[in-house]
Design a protein that fits this description.
Length: about 400
């Protein structure tokens, strides 16, 4: 996918991107097809016979591939009756299990080859090969997507079971968590609280992610379920013993700037697990529209900017930068990261210094040079802030 990103940065021919989209779909590369769509490819330029059928895509088990064929520009090619048939097909695969259905279709009793693959930019799926046929195990996610498209409401219990058949970075898990978090209703909240009390860490992890998304997607911090989520996550953070679950719980507090949430985060500044410390660093500080930073949060961010884990330093530096208050201790700590051996740490140091209108950001930006091919969007997000600072300074 990195190569595709590089080509998209270099090539401005949108007709060629549409052609490449068709080729990617025909080759069952759903993740690449979606990157091309995000890069401006117009799927409607491809005739129906230049693409796979929706049935072939559903059979493949790739949510990314099905999603590419259901792009808004060509979605009306599929009547509701066909979408219902594809929903039923995805359900058959999901309920039978990819391995069982694959054995049924191939008639093979050979050993199954199973690997983990990236399906799109964010999620992975399992890929199974048997008897010369290869499928991915994303049918549960496809089922969830088709139900949403058709306006079919699966029960909360069914969706949670569907998610928990998989691991956290699987598409099925992510699709269900996002879909349920948009149901602002008591049934969803009760399910999240039930998961919080479960003895199985994987179920608690899903409950924590669901609460985090309920808070994240709230229209305001005064919304009923947002208030419930913040209170529950704050209390939960003092009780959770599993590192992965605790990190998810703390991430649920990172968009809520309040004293109780901050105290919950500060309690874990020195945690032994780097993932937990990253969650603390990401949660401390302020929203972009505020320059307030408590003394306790300031001291914690200064400590976390010297953390042995580079991701913890990045999160702490970003939040220190977003304080935008010109604090010399913070700016000096960020400037020290300009000499860090990892480019991604240097980039966020440039970003943070620029937000503080500290001219050392320009030295760091000059040393870094232009964005690397394939990483343009990510790196421009940091470098552009420094260049804007220079323009403001030079204009004055």
């Amino acid at each position: 996918m990195l190569l595709v990103k590089r080509l998209l940065e270099e090539d401005g021919d949108y007709d060629e991107r549409a052609t490449a989209f068709g080729v990617a779909v025909q080759a069952f590369h759903g993740g690449i097809a979606q990157l091309l769509l995000m890069g401006g490819a117009d799927a409607s330029q491809c005739a129906p016979d230049e693409l796979l059928s929706l049935r072939e895509a559903v059979d493949s088990g790739s949510p990314a591939l099905v999603g590419a064929l259901l792009d808004h520009s060509i979605r009306d090619r599929y009547p509701a009756s066909e979408l219902l048939e594809m929903r039923d097909l995805a359900r058959r695969w999901h309920e039978a299990g990819a391995e069982a259905e694959l054995r049924h279709r191939t008639g093979s009793q050979d050993d199954l080859v199973c690997t983990r693959v990236q399906d799109d930019e964010y999620y992975t799926v399992g890929e199974l090969t048997l008897g010369g046929m290869t499928v991915r195990d994303g049918h549960g996610a496809i089922l969830t997507d088709l139900e949403e498209l058709l306006g079919i409401r699966a029960s909360c219990e069914e969706l949670i079971t569907r998610a928990l058949d998989r691991v956290q970075d699987h598409t099925a898990w992510g699709r269900v968590a996002i879909r349920l978090s948009h149901r602002r209703e008591q049934e969803t909240w009760t399910a999240a609280e039930t998961l919080r009390a479960d003895a199985d860490p994987s179920r608690r992890l899903f409950g924590a992610e669901l609460m985090r998304l309920i808070e994240l997607f709230a229209d305001s911090h005064e919304e009923e379920f947002c208030v419930l989520a913040v209170d529950a996550l704050t209390d939960w953070s003092a009780e959770e013993t599993d590192n992965a679950v605790l990190a998810e719980v703390l991430h649920g507090l990172d968009s809520y700037a309040g004293p109780r949430a901050e105290a919950a985060l500060l309690a874990h500044v020195g945690h032994h697990d780097a993932g937990v410390r990253r969650a603390v660093a990401a949660g401390l500080g302020t929203r972009l529209e505020s320059t307030y930073l408590s003394d306790e949060a300031r001291e914690a961010l200064l400590a976390l900017m010297t953390d042995p884990d580079a991701d913890v330093r990045i999160a702490a530096c970003r939040k220190a930068g977003e304080a935008r208050n010109g604090d010399p201790a913070l700016t000096d700590a960020m400037a020290a990261l300009l000499d860090h051996p990892e480019r991604r740490v240097q980039l966020v140091a440039v970003y943070g210094l620029a937000l503080h209108d500290d001219e050392r950001c320009m030295e760091g930006a000059d040393r870094l040079g232009p964005p690397r091919p394939g990483f343009r969007d990510e790196e421009m997000a940091c470098l552009d802030v420094a260049w804007r600072y220079q323009w403001r300074r030079d204009d004055n």
